[in-house]
Structure formats: C-alpha cells, structure tokens
Amino acid sequence: MFTSEVPIQFGEPLVEHLNGQLESDSTRATSLEIRIQERVAEELRRMAEQENDMMRQVEERLSTQSSDAATKAIARREEMQRLLQQVRAKAESQPKQVEMEPSTEKAREALVSCLRTYQNRPLDCWQQVEDFKSEVRKLEEKFIARHQV
Fold it and tell me: In this structure, are residues 26 and 100 in contact, taking their beta carbons and an 8 Å threshold?
C-alpha cells in the first residue's frame, strides 16, 4: 500500500467549484421530469399539427370524392381524433413534477447546511448524506409502487 509523506492539498478554485455544485439526485430527477414533460408537450403540438394537416387533406378529398368516400374519410377523421384523445389522456396521466415530502426536504436542507458549515471537510457530513439517501430511497419506492401494473 502506498502512503504519501507529502500532504495532499487541493487548490482553492477546485474546492470552490466543487462546493458551488449543489445539484442533487432529486434536482436532477426534477429537471429530467421537466424535460420529459416538455418533450411530451412538443409531441402533442406536433401531433395536433399533423391532425390539422390531415384534416385539410381530408376536406380537400371530400370535395372531390363521392359521398361514400366522404363517409370513409369522416370515419378516418373520427378514428384520428379518438387516437389523439388517447395520446392526450396518456400524456396527462404521466406524473407531473412532484413536490418533495417535508421529511425529504428537511433531510436535503440538513445536508446542504452541513456541507456549507464544513466546506473543507465534507466527509464530516456522512450522517446527513445517509439520511438524505434514505429519504430519496423511500420516495423511489413510493414512485415504483404507484406505477406498477
């Protein structure tokens, strides 16, 4: 095993940079959820545009086709509207940004406070880290239980 006789010291800019990063698992999860919601909203907008285009095309065809073909086009339009409603319902059923439970928020605040207090000795905050990880684990288990079929 290698043991150094020279103490290891980190530069102040590195320590400040590392202390400045307060992004946690929960904030990453929140930002991921926001990005997912944005992508779903964009997909819904795109699908609505496609539906409008299809409706215009159907209306153009209806003006040139017989009444029998018009009935089929109306049925296709109704089918498209039904499918769009299903997609919208599915998107709305997706979980929105979840508020943190008070116990999780309390554990997070305790961890942040400890890390700020012991800026040069973050290993002194191991208990707060474990408490926060435990709270996040509980949230994950609740999430999984809620979304199991």
Answer: yes
Decide: 30 and 114 in contact? Cβ < 8 Å: no
Asked whether the whole model's pTM tops 0.70, one would answer no
* b (16+ CB within 10 A) / e for 36-52: eeeebeeeeeebeeeee
- Structure tokens of 23? 């992004």
The token pair at 94 is 């997706």
Helix (H, G, I), strand (E, B) or coil at 111: helix
Range with lowest mean pLDDT among 7-11, 38-42, 123-127, 128-132: 7-11
pLDDT tens for each residue of 106-118: 999 999 999 999 9
- Domain locations in the chain as residue ranges: 26-98, 99-144
Least confident of 24-28, 106-110, 123-127, 133-137: 24-28
Q: Which residue has the tokens 């285009």?
A: 53
Residue 96 CB burial class (10 angstroms; 0-12, 13-18, ≥19) = exposed
